[in-house]
Amino acid sequence: xxxxxxxxxxxxxxxxxxxxxxxxxxxxxxxxxxxxxxxxxxxxxxxxxxxxxxxxxxxxxxxxxxxxxxxxxxxxxxxxxxxxxxxxxxxxxxxxxxxxxxxxxxxxxxxxxxxxxxxxxxxxxxxxxxxxxxxxxxxxxxxxxxxxxxxxxxxxxxxxxxxxxxxxxxxxxxxxxxxxxxxxxxxxxxxxxx
Length: 194
Fold this sequence. Notes:
The model has no long low-confidence stretch (mean pLDDT 91). It is built from 9 helices and 4 strands, in the order αβαββαααααααβ. It has helices at 2-5, 22-27, 47-57, 69-93, 103-123, 134-149, 151-156, 160-170, 173-178, and strands spanning 11-12, 36-39, 42-44, 192-193. By secondary structure, it is mainly alpha-helical. The strands form 2 sheets. It has a two-stranded antiparallel sheet. The protein folds into 2 domains: 2-60 and 180-193, Glutaredoxin (3-Layer(aba) Sandwich); 66-175, Glutathione S-transferase Yfyf (Class Pi), Chain A, domain 2. The chain starts with a helix and ends with a strand.
């Protein structure tokens, strides 16, 4: 979403994690996606770093905020999301792989983060302000994943403001463009530009 929003022209290569092409392994030593190759000597493999890089190239609606204030405010929130929430989300989504606890238990572990976001969203239309910031774009894909595990539960959950925010994010132009399905890339394919 950040790459599209920043109007950065990049070559998009959709790959399967279970069968990464050697070309991907050559630029992503840890075999992670996404990986952004900037040039033959520089790449980045963290979504957060890629977002910051893209927005520092071009930020037409000021998602970073004046003097990067939104980025700085988003850092601890993204850290919380990427560490504890993401770990619990994975266990919630794939509870059968983690039989030590129930799916309901893992969902409960996620709820402290949902509750914190719901409270934040009672103060502003978006996480940090009355308009979209880097924080919204970084956090929303994970809340979207959470909402889809048990849609009925999420729709009936005590987080109406968070639910409304998720709908706003799902209706953005950037979401529609960033989440299009693409064929898996193979060596020799024509370049697909984002």
